[in-house]
Amino acid sequence: MGVNGIYGLSGSGLDVESMVKVGMMSKENQLTKMQQNYTKNEWKKEAYLEIYDKLQSYNLSNLSNYKRTEYMNARTATSSNDAIKVTANSSAPTKSHVISVDRTATSAYLNGTEKLTRTASGASQYSTKLADVLFSSYSITENDNGTYNATFNFSDGTSKEFSSASEADLKAVNALSFLVGADTDAVTAGAYANVSLTSTAFSSTNFKSTLQGIINDYADNEGYTSTQDFLTDYKDETALSISAADGTNSDEIEITFGELNEVLEKGTFQDFVALLNKKFSDSGVNLEASDDSNTLKISNTNASTTDTVSFVINSDGIGTAFNDAIKDGMTTAPTSGVTVDGVTFTENTTGMTGSSTTMLTLEASNGAAASVDTDEMKEVKITYYDLVKDASFYTLTNKVGNTGTGVKAYYDSAQDTFSFYNQKSGSSSYVAIQANDERTATLLTNMGLKATDGGADLSNAPIINFAESDGNDGYKAKITAGKDASVTIDGIKQNPNANNITVQGVTYDFSQVTKSETATVNVDQDVDKIMDNVKSFVKEYNELMEGLYTAYSERPNSGYEPLTEAQKAEMTEEQIEKWEKKAKAGLLYHDSTLRRIIEQMRSAVSGTVDGMDSGYKYTTAYSIGISSKGVQGQLQIDEERLRAALVDDPDSVYKIFANLDSTKDDVTDSANGIAQRLGGVLSNATKSISKVSGTNSGTAEDSTLNTLLRNLQTKMSNFQAMMQAFEDKLYKKYDAMESSLAMLGSQLNYVTGMFSS
User: What 3-state class would DSSP assign to 479?
Assistant: First the structure.
C-alpha cells in the first residue's frame, strides 16, 4: 500500500500494487542473494566450529592420556597371598618384593559389654528413651502456652523440677554432659613403658633349632626316645609359665607343648611373638610383644601413671632351659642380679633339677600417661529440653557423631549395648572421653565400656570407671588408642597408620596378619594394557583424521542454495532437511586451513623421535608396528610387532609417545614424542581455526568470518533501508499519477455534463 494508502478511485484501472511489486523485484533478488551469502558463511562458520570442538576436546582429554606414564608405561602387580592386594603405578620398578604383615592397623574402640538398665518405673525393657536409664521416675506436662512442668526423680532420692519452664529454660540445664576428643590436637600420647631383650637365640636362624633342642632334652629327661611321641602325650601340659603384669592387671600365662609344637611347625620367632600377644590379649594384661631381628620387646599398651611392664619366665616346664638359652645368646652373659639392656636374671632356687638357677625378669618403670587438652575437645550434652522431647539412645549417638571429631557412637539394639569408636585407624587415632558430672560418669561406667584396638578379646579386660577423680573436683579422661600396622617389605619394617602403604610405586592393601608367611609380589610391564591403549590411540586418531579428510574432500552440490522463507513455507520439514544437507555439502572443500592441519598431523606421527638417546632400540612409530595406509593417512597396527617391542624395550614405546624435551620451545619439535607433537599440532590448529571462525557461535570475536558476517549484516541493513526508500518513491510516483487521473476524470465529467445539458 502506497503513501496515500488508497488506490483505484480514479477509475484508471491501474494495478498499482502489482506495478510496485514488479518495480521492487530486482531489489528483492539482490537482497535474497545477500541473505543466502550470509547463510552460507554462517554454515561455514558452524562447520569450522564443529572441527574446532572435536580437535579441542580430543587434545585436552583423550590425547593427554597417551602422554602419561600410567597409560603408556603401565605396570601390573600380582601377590602370592590373597590377603594382600597390590597395585603398581608407572614408577614401580619391574622386580619382585617380599612382604609379611605382622599386625594390621586398628581403630580405637570403647566397646560396651553391659546391657543398659531401665531404672524408670514402668519402663519397657526395650525402651530406647534416655530418661528411662537416667531416672527412677519422671513426669512431663506441656502447658497450653508452650511451657513445661516436669519432675525428674533420681535413684538417690533427689530430683530436678521445672515449673512453667520455657524451651530456653530447659536448654540451659544439662542432664548429661561429657567431652570427646579424637586426634593429636586433643590428645597427647603416653610414653609406653617397655623393656627390650637382645639375644641371638631369638634370631630367625637360631630360634627353631634352639627351641627344638630344649624340647628334645626335656623329652629325654622324661624317658621318651621319640620327641614326637612326647609331644603327643604332653600336648596339653604346660611348657612355659609366664608371670605378666602391666601395673593394673596381672596373670599367669601358660603356653603348652602343643602350642610350642605349632610354632615349631611354622618355624620362626615371629610366630612365638604372635603366640605371646594372643596370650596377653586373652589374659587382659595390657602388654604387647614385638620383634626386630634378634630383639624381643615387651611394651605396655595403656600408658597410665601406674603402667609398668613385668615379664617373668617361671621355672615350670622348660622355663629354666629357655632362660639358659637366652643367656647363652646374649653378647655378655650377666651374672645374678646384673642388668643388661633392661633385662635382669634373678635368682630362683626351684629350677627343674632343684639346683640354684637364674630366671629372666623384665621390669620397666612407669610410663608417661596419655593426657587431654579439654579446650580442644568437643562437648556432647543432653539437655532437659532434649528429654522432654523424648531424647533416645539414637539422639545421643547423633550428638556424638555431630561433634566433628571423628568419634562415633553406636547403639546395638540386639545386644542392648553402647560403643564408641574412631573412624580412623592407627596409633594417633584416639577415643578420649571425660565426664563433666557425676551422673554422666555413672551412666558411662554402667555401659561397661572396655578399651580395645578393634579385635581384641574383651572377656578379661577391666570395665572403665569414668568416675575416677582427677584430683581437682573433676573426672579423669579415659583414653584408648588404635594401633599402627606392622609390615615388613623387602626386609624393612614399616608402620603405616592404615592397612595400606605405598612403597616404590607399589600399593599394598592388607586385610589380615600373615605372621611369618611372606607374600611375594611381582611387578611387571602390563603389556596387554599398553597394547589396548595403543589401539585406542590409533582408533581415535583415525576417526579424527577421517572427519578432517571428509570435510576437506567433500565436493559442493551445484544448484543448492540456502532456502528463502517463502520457499520453506511451500516445503515439508523432511524436504527442507534433505535440501539443506545437500546445500551444506562441500563448505570446506579443499580448505587451506584443513589441508595444513592434515599434513601436520601426519608428519607428527610419522617422524623420528630425536630426543631419545642411543640406549633405546626404537625411535619411530613405524619401528614398533604403527604405519600409515591410504591417501587419508590412516594408521594401522602390526600387533605382533608392537607386542615384541613392548617385551623387548617397553621404555622405548613409552618414549615414542610421551617423550618431552623441556628445552624446546615448540612442542611439535622432533625431539618430542608423537603424542606430545600431535598435541602441539592440535593446539596450533585450534588457534588457526579460531582466526578464521572464532571459537563460539557469536560474531563479536575478531576473526575472518565474523568480520565478513558483521559486514554483511551492515550491508543488508543498509540495502533494506534503500529498498524501503525506493518503494516509497514508487508509491509517491503512482500517488501523483492517480491524483492526475482523478483530476482529468473530474474535468471530463464536467465537460460531458455541460454538453448533455
Answer: strand
Domain boundaries, the chain: 26-70+528-554+589-704, 75-105+485-525, 107-188+371-481, 194-364
Q: Is the pLDDT of residue 571 over 70?
A: yes
pLDDT tens string 708-755: 888 888 888 888 888 788 777 777 777 677 667 667 666 677 667 777
- The Cα 221–Cα 317 span in angstroms is 11
| Distance between CA atoms of residues 343 and 335, nearest Å | 11
The CA distance from 426 to 420, in Å, is 16
Angle, to 10 degrees, between the axis of helix 319-329 and the axis of helix 207-221?
Answer: 140
**Alpha carbon distance 549, 284 (integer Å):** 78
682-699 pLDDT, tens digit per residue, is 999 999 999 998 889 888
With left for phi above 0 and alpha for psi between -120 and 50, is residue 203 left, alpha or beta?
beta
Rounded-to-integer distance, Cα 552 and Cα 48, Å = 11
Q: Where are the beta strands (DSSP E) in 601-703?
A: 626-629, 634-637
- 509 HSE (CA, 13 A, CB side): 7
Q: Tell me which H or E stretch contains 241.
A: strand 238-245
One-letter amino acid of 449: L
Helix (H) or strand (E) holding 57: helix 16-60
Give the pLDDT of residue 757: 59
**Strand, coil or helix: what is 466?**
coil
For residues 390 and 411, give the distance between their C-alpha atoms in angstroms, rounded to a whole number: 17
All 3 cell numbers of residue 757?
445539458
How many other β-carbons are positioned within 10 Å of the β-carbon of residue 106?
22
